[in-house]
Structure of Sugar phosphate transporter domain-containing protein:
Amino acid sequence: MSALAKVPEPQHTGLLKFLSAAFYAASSFFIIVVNKTILTNYRFPSYMFLGIGQMATTIIILFAAKMNKTVHFQDFDRSVLVKIFPLPLLYVGNHITGLASTKNLSLPMFTVLRKFTILMTMIMEARILGKSFPNRLIYSVLAIVFGALVAASSDLAFDAESYLFILLNDVFTAASGVFTKKKLGVEGLGKYGILFYNAFIIVIPTLLASVFTGDLHKAISYEYWFNAAFVSCFLISCIMGFVLMYSIVLCSHYNSALTTTVVGAIKNVAVAYVGMFVGGDYLFSWTNFLGLNICMSGGLVYSYLIFHSSKPSQCNERGIKENQDELKISLLEDSTEEFLVKFPSNIPDE
């Protein structure tokens, strides 16, 4: 009966896939706007402290939910560290580099350079998960990268430090998405365990790093802590940090790491064009504008190919049928073996 383990996992409904993807897109869009307001408009000096606030909020919310038995995940022991590694490292890297890159980079350029996450996710899925992709999908990704390079080449607001941070953020985001998909199936963790222990394991080291670098002192000494508007934005960012991480895990649960990345690309289309009219930090140039449009067009084509190919195809149906046939054959062989063992006299003599 071991052949039963080969039965394909049941597919989630299209509605759940779409709703989880839309939830992630909305959360990601909103937190970018809030974080940029805090770090740019209010000139908050510590993106690391903001990340700590988001991690602490995640811990508090999930711990309270676990105590109320609203959610369930494994209690902490040594096995948790083995099960969840290397997600905490990728989590803190994603948080810190993402917040750092938002500080001095315009919204359109931020979203353009984030397109490299798609290429990196494809590479990591091919390497780590052994997936392969059709040529037309690869070409669309190259078009996205080409458009991003064209747009970035004439960025009049060029900031080498921000560019470095956002490229590192792309790497961490891609790796986090791929490994999150792998860890979702680990017994005892699940969606909530991944979120809780990611934040729980790395919040203290991050806090210590903030203390030793003087980052915490700058955050505490910030002049607008008694400003109601700033405090409201800060609290919203902390809550949205939890919501965003939950939406990413939820989208990865119902979809794939690559689909989650594609959803981010679709969301970035809206962010980039809104950023041209809102925020006042986009410096127009025709080369930059052309690159943006190439990049966004490639993203839309890429998204279409991904979602179109995700529909049940004849190839997929044939694969499922073959798996079912294999299962039937395996079960038949097991039944035949059992019959021969019980009734050996029924074997005809030659």
